[in-house]
Amino acid sequence: MTELRNNRHLTMERLLDLIGTAKVDTVIVAFTDMQGRLQGKRLHGQYFKDVVVPHGTEGCNYLLAVDVEMNTVDGYAISSWEKGYGDMEFVLDERTIRLLSHLPATAMVQCDLVWPDHSPVVQSPRTILTSQLDRVAERGWQALAGTELEFIAFDTTYEAAHDAGYRDLRPVNQYNVDYSILGTSRVEPLLREIRNTMYAAGLDVEGAKGECNFGQHEVGFLYADALTTADNHAVYKNVAKEIAAHQGKAITFMAKYNEREGSSCHIHLSLRGQDGELLFWKDGARTPLYDQFVAGILATVADFTLLYAPNINSYKRFADGSFAPTTIAWGLDNRTCAVRLVGHGAGARMENRIPGADVNPYLALAAMVAGGLHGIENELELEPPLEGNAYTSGRPKVPHTMQEAREAFSSSAIARATLGDEVVDHYANMADVELAAYNAAVTDWELHRGFERL
Ligand SMILES: NC(=O)CC[C@H](N)C(=O)O
Prior knowledge:
Layout: H1 12-20, E1 26-32, E2 38-44, H2 45-55, E3 57-60, E4 87-92, E5 98-99, E6 106-114, H3 125-138, E7 141-154, H4 158-163, H5 181-185, H6 188-200, E8 205-210, E9 216-221, E10 224-225, H7 226-246, E11 250-252, E12 265-273, E13 281-282, E14 285-286, H8 288-299, H9 301-308, E15 330-332, E16 339-342, E17 349-352, H10 361-377, H11 402-410, H12 413-419, H13 421-440, H14 444-450
Parallel strand pairs: 1-6, 15-16
Antiparallel strand pairs: 1-2, 3-4, 4-6, 5-6, 7-9, 7-10, 7-11, 7-12, 8-9, 12-17, 13-14, 16-17
Helix pairs in contact: 3-7, 3-10, 6-7, 8-10, 9-10, 9-11, 10-12, 11-13, 12-13
This protein binds glutamine (GLN).
Pfam family, one: Gln-synt_C
EC number: 6.3.1.-
Keywords: ATP-binding, Ligase, Nucleotide-binding
């Protein structure tokens, strides 16, 4: 029997029992798409039990070849009008079965994707992460990770926000509520329902805190193995939006909603032995392996920025003095650096501060593992820590545009050697599609600046 991630997850046997006694009547089967979103179907419990568990289910392969707005676009080798937009098969991962208590009698199962001949869909984000984690496991290690997502909440429905052109929206707080207990109390009905729903769904919830931008908050979760963390992250983002919508509110995980502070997804990562032995700390100090891992992450920042910052908007977040990084540097508990080292002993870990809340966690974690292993394999030396203000340090810059990040990713020998050509070409095309859409758009900024004055 598959080992449960914790006792709030369900075995398949238990889920089928709950369907048999009508305690569950709806099962969502979902995978994570290129943008990090859950895509799939809601199935009637009985159909899930009688047909899907024994025979499987499918979805159109365009789901890994569309843009944010679900437009069919050109340039993907695996999916096109010429290829007829056929199916991919969903492979249920029984370790992910959970109840979603904010919905009536509903459970969710997350899936991997295979082609009809059962070969893996290598471009699927979950497969990309699993491949890198297999490399970690081959060495007798495991990767532990935590993702910290910030969001901004508004006192409006998504529909009203849309109809207002996303202008003049009222955030749930009108001032900076960083660490403010009063600030979070004002939003507690929303935060509490998110925390408790996520706990019931198998996530280990730490708590919630206010952040700097108006209406900005963060719900924190304990670290877990990297695949569990990515699975939970995808479910959390979806559920948090659904709960907000139920309460007549809207939340956004855009990396940069306005000109104030953006929303981050700091990613914490460490390696352990398969039985939990420490690999990053020995005799009261960092190990050479830890330093090589961090050196590898730093050496590959440019190669993998596209996976840390996958949207046009992601790059607007990289602003000096905003707590989002702009330089490729590391420091000891230094929040101005791209990489911050924190903790000691069992808590010793690196924090990658580059990703925004719009990141796809599977892809970012895969990139970090690939970069870190590159550092270990090549025994890279870690430069001394940056002391003081990284923003004014003159260190090399994190790529500041999507075009730059796309070129660095596509021409990266490390990305191609670790992720494979099929993956690199697929995600370089995703960047080309976004860049083309952005370049074709005339923005508010241009109108305001030029309409009368130019
Ligand atoms: N908590 C923080 O360090 C703030 C992070 C900041 N909001 C960012 O976008 O990176």
